[in-house]
Design a protein that fits this description.
The protein is mostly helical. Helix 2 packs across helix 3.
């Protein structure tokens, strides 16, 4: 016959105890949503907007931007300033200008200049540039 086991305070029945290697909270504590996540969730919700006789479903963000610019058009200086600042903040950066192609003669001049600057830097550091040139040739 098996041993009798007392069940009571701090002694749960054997069949309902945690198994070895089993966690008591497998999913873990739910994470608290950040303010940024909540803002995105709220601004992505759709609302029905009636303009004239037509109804459209747009996001709250689109509605908010529309209201901002409508108030700016009504010549309210505070809203104008805010609308201009937001528009400037989100405009794409200007394209980078392309560098002109160099002639082969110009490339040779630049290579010679880079070599001279490197040689002078080595001499200032107390390193013999001819020793490095010999190693690179091998």
């Amino acid at each position: 016959m098996s041993k009798q086991y007392d069940v009571g305070y701090g002694k749960p029945p054997v069949h309902s105890r945690w198994k070895k290697g089993q966690s008591g909270n497998t999913k873990g504590r739910p994470r608290r949503a950040s303010i940024a996540d909540m803002m995105v969730a709220v601004l992505d919700r759709k609302v029905v907007v009636t303009r004239g006789r037509s109804k459209r479903r747009i996001t709250k963000l689109e509605q908010l931007i529309g209201m901002l610019f409508e108030r700016a058009v009504e010549r309210d200086p505070r809203w104008m300033k805010l609308a201009i600042e937001e528009a400037r903040r989100h405009e794409p950066p200007p394209p980078k200008p392309e560098l002109p192609k160099l002639d082969p003669a110009d490339e040779d001049v630049l290579k010679a200049l880079y070599a001279r600057i490197a040689r002078d830097a080595l001499e200032q550091a107390g390193v013999d540039p001819s020793a490095i040139e010999q190693k690179s040739e091998e």
